[in-house]
C-alpha cells in the first residue's frame, strides 16, 4: 500500500515495486490460504503463463510488468480499505437491530450503489462489515450487493471499467456515455425491486439491511468527500490510487478523535498483525487472475492481424456486449476483453463514444456473472459468500438487462443518425 503511494509521487520508486511486494506477501501467506483458493490461483497462473509465452513466441510484446501487476492497484486499494475495520466498534448488547423488510432491501440497494459510484468497491466492504458485525453476511445480502454495485459500472467514471473505456477511446464524450448508462442502471433498480417484492429474494421480510443512520453514514460520507476533493485536485489520477491515499487519512483522523495519540500504536499493530494478513485469499485470487488476464491479452496479440469488427453500429455493439457476458461466464475478466478489443480495432474507424458506452455496459453486466470479478471475489474472500453461486444466480438478472442494453445501443445509433 505504501509502495503504491510512493510510486505515484516519487520517481525513484518503480511502479512494479508494489507488485513485487504483493507477490512476496502471497508467498508468505500461502500456507494459510484455503485449498480451493490455492487450486484456483494455481490454475489461473499456469494457464496464464502458458498463454503469455505462447503469445510472446508469436510476436506479442513480452511485458513482465503486466504479468506481475495486472491487478496490483486494486490490491493496494483493498489493503487500504482494510484499515476501515479498525473503526468497527465491538458489538454491544444494546446495539439497535438492523432494519428489516422490503424497505431495508431498497435502502441497502440504493446505499451501496450511491456510495459505490464514488468510493468504488470500498462501499461494499463498508456496508458488509456493518451487516456482518453480529452475524455472517447472508447469501441474499451478498447477492444484492453484487448486483447493485455492478450496476454502477454502467456510468460512473469512478469505476475501473468506465475509466478504462474512456482512456482507451480518445475523443469519446463521457456525458453522452453516462446519458445512456444511467437508464440501464435505473432498469437494474426496477428489476431488483420487482425481484424482492415478488418474493424471489428469499424471505424479504427478514432481510437485514444497512442502517442509513447518521452514525453509520459518517465514515462513508467522509471517504466520499475525500475522494471527490482528491479527484478535483489530481484529475489525472486513478480513483483506486486516490482511495488508497485518502482512506488512511480518514482512518487516522477518526482514530485520533476516538483514542487520541496513545491509541494509534495499538490500532496499527492490530492492523499489521491481524487485519492485513487476512488478505491472503484476495492476494491469491487477484494476482492469479491478473496473470490469466495478461496471458489472454498476449495470446490475442499473437493470433495475427485480423479485424474483430468490420464496423461498430448497434448490432455489432450488441454482439460485443454479449461477448463480454459469455467470456465473463468462463471467468475471463472484462478488463481482458477491453484490452483485446482495443488492440484488434485499431485500424477500424469507430465512434469512440459508442465504443466507450459498449465497454461500460459490457463491464457492468460481465462483472455480475463473473465469479472472479472484484466484487464477487471480495464477497467470497472477506465474508465467506460463494462467489460461484452468486455469479450463477445473476444470469437471469444479466439476461434481462442485456435486452435493455441492446435497446439503448440501437437508440444511440438512431439518435446519432
Can you walk me through this structure?
It is globular and about 65 Å long. Helix 5 packs parallel to helix 12. The longest helix is centred in the middle third of the chain and has 24 residues. It has 417 residues and is an all-alpha fold. The chain is built from 20 helices and no strands. The model has no long low-confidence stretch (mean pLDDT 84). Helix content is 70%, strand content 0%. It has one domain.
Give a brief outline of the structure:
By secondary structure, the chain is mostly helical. It contains 20 helices and no strands.
Summary keywords:
417 residues; globular
Any idea what the shape is? globular
The largest β sheet comes out as: none
Number of helical runs? 20
**Structural class of the helix and strand makeup?**
mainly alpha
State Rg. 21 Å
Low-pLDDT stretches are none
Number of domains: 1
Number of strands: 0
Strand percentage: under 5%
Helix content: over 70%
Distance between the termini: 48 Å
Write the element-wise H/E pattern from the N-terminal end onward.
HHHHHHHHHHHHHHHHHHHH
Average pLDDT metric:
84
Protein topology:
Blueprint: H1 2-9, H2 16-29, H3 35-57, H4 64-69, H5 72-82, H6 102-119, H7 122-131, H8 139-150, H9 160-167, H10 174-197, H11 214-233, H12 239-259, H13 264-275, H14 280-301, H15 314-329, H16 334-344, H17 352-369, H18 374-383, H19 387-393, H20 395-416
Helix pairs in contact: 1-2, 2-14, 3-14, 5-12, 6-7, 6-8, 6-10, 7-18, 9-17, 10-17, 10-20, 11-12, 14-16, 14-18, 15-17, 15-20, 17-20, 18-19
Amino acid at each position: 500500500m505504501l509502495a503504491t503511494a510512493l510510486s505515484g509521487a516519487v520517481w525513484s520508486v518503480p511502479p512494479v515495486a508494489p507488485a513485487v511486494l504483493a507477490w512476496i506477501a502471497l508467498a508468505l501467506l500461502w500456507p494459510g490460504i484455503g485449498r480451493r483458493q490455492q487450486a484456483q490461483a494455481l490454475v489461473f497462473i499456469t494457464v496464464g503463463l502458458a498463454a503469455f509465452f505462447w503469445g510472446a513466441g508469436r510476436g506479442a510484446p513480452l511485458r513482465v510488468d503486466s504479468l506481475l501487476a495486472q491487478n496490483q492497484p486494486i490490491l493496494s486499494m483493498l489493503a487500504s480499505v482494510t484499515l476501515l475495520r479498525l473503526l468497527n466498534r465491538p458489538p454491544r448488547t444494546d446495539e439497535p437491530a438492523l432494519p428489516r423488510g422490503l424497505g431495508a432491501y431498497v435502502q441497502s440497494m440504493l446505499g451501496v450503489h450511491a456510495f459505490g459510484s464514488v468510493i468504488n468497491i470500498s462501499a461494499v466492504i463498508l456496508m458488509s462489515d456493518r451487516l456482518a458485525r453480529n452475524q455472517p453476511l447472508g447469501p441474499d445480502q451478498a447477492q444484492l450487493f453484487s448486483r447493485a454495485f455492478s450496476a454502477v459500472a454502467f456510468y460512473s467514471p469512478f469505476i475501473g471499467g468506465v475509466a478504462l473505456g474512456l482512456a482507451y477511446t480518445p475523443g469519446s464524450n463521457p456525458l453522452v456515455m453516462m446519458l445512456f448508462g444511467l437508464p440501464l442502471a435505473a432498469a437494474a433498480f426496477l428489476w431488483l425491486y420487482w425481484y424482492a417484492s415478488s418474493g424471489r429474494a428469499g424471505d424479504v421480510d427478514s432481510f437485514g439491511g444497512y442502517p442509513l443512520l447518521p452514525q453509520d453514514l459518517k465514515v462513508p460520507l467522509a471517504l466520499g468527500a475525500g475522494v471527490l476533493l482528491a479527484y478535483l485536485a489530481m484529475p489525472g489520477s486513478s480513483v483506486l490510487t486516490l482511495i488508497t491515499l485518502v482512506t488512511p487519512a480518514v482512518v487516522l483522523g477518526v482514530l485520533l478523535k476516538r483514542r487520541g495519540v496513545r491509541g494509534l500504536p495499538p490500532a496499527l499493530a492490530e492492523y499489521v498483525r491481524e487485519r492485513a494478513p487476512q488478505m491472503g485469499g484476495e492476494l491469491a485470487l487477484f494476482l492469479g487472475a491478473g496473470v490469466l488476464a495478461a496471458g489472454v491479452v498476449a495470446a490475442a496479440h499473437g493470433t495475427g492481424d485480423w479485424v474483430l469488427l468490420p464496423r461498430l453500429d448497434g448490432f455489432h455493439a450488441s454482439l460485443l456486449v454479449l461477448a463480454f457476458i459469455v467470456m465473463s461466464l468462463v471467468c475471463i475478466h472484462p478488463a481482458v476483453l477491453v484490452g483485446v478489443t482495443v488492440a484488434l480495432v485499431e485500424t477500424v474507424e469507430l465512434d469512440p463514444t459508442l465504443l466507450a458506452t459498449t465497454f461500460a455496459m459490457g463491464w457492468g453486466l460481465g462483472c455480475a456473472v463473473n465469479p472472479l470479478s472484484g466484487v464477487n471475489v471480495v464477497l467470497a474472500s472477506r465474508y465467506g459468500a460463494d462467489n460461484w453461486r452468486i455469479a450463477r444466480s445473476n444470469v437471469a438478472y444479466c439476461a434481462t438487462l442485456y435486452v435493455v442494453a441492446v435497446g439503448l445501443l440501437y437508440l444511440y445509433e438512431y439518435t446519432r443518425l
